[in-house]
Design brief:
Order of helices and strands: HHHEEHH
Radius of gyration: 18 Å
Distance between the termini: 19 Å
Number of strands: 2
Strand content: 5-15%
Shape: elongated
Length: 124
């Protein structure tokens, strides 16, 4: 998978993993595991990036005598998930265009804006 595409998807997955409750690194990895594999060496830079973008906040609490960092989604993080859900409609249309095996007549089923966007991305 394209590195940039995967990076964007992983950012959203991390935000989704902490959307309903605060969490810590190892738990985030476990929560994401049924859907996508992510290592600690991948997760922690994502968490730092999301924090710098103000999409999540970090706080520490003692757990078994050690400080554990917890992550909480912000309003901006919630808004980013909603933006992604809107973008996904366009991504799905582009995907349908790419995997379609039909003829010229089949293009009627894909929104023209999605086709224009796909062409713009390809030329980009």
């Amino acid at each position: 998978m394209d590195v940039q595409l995967k990076r964007g998807l992983l950012d959203i997955c991390v935000l989704a993993a902490i959307r309903t409750e605060d969490s810590y690194g190892y738990q985030i990895i476990r929560d994401m595991k049924p859907y996508v594999e992510v290592s600690e060496s991948t997760l922690y830079p994502i968490l730092r990036r999301l924090e710098s973008q103000q999409l999540l906040t970090v706080w520490s609490a003692e757990h078994n005598g050690r400080l554990r960092k917890y992550y909480r989604i912000t309003r901006q993080g919630e808004a980013r998930i909603e933006e992604f859900k809107e973008e996904w409609v366009e991504i799905e249309a582009i995907y349908q265009f790419i995997v379609k095996e039909g003829t010229e007549n089949d293009k009627a089923g894909v929104p023209q804006g999605a086709l224009d966007e796909a062409v713009g991305i390809a030329q980009g």
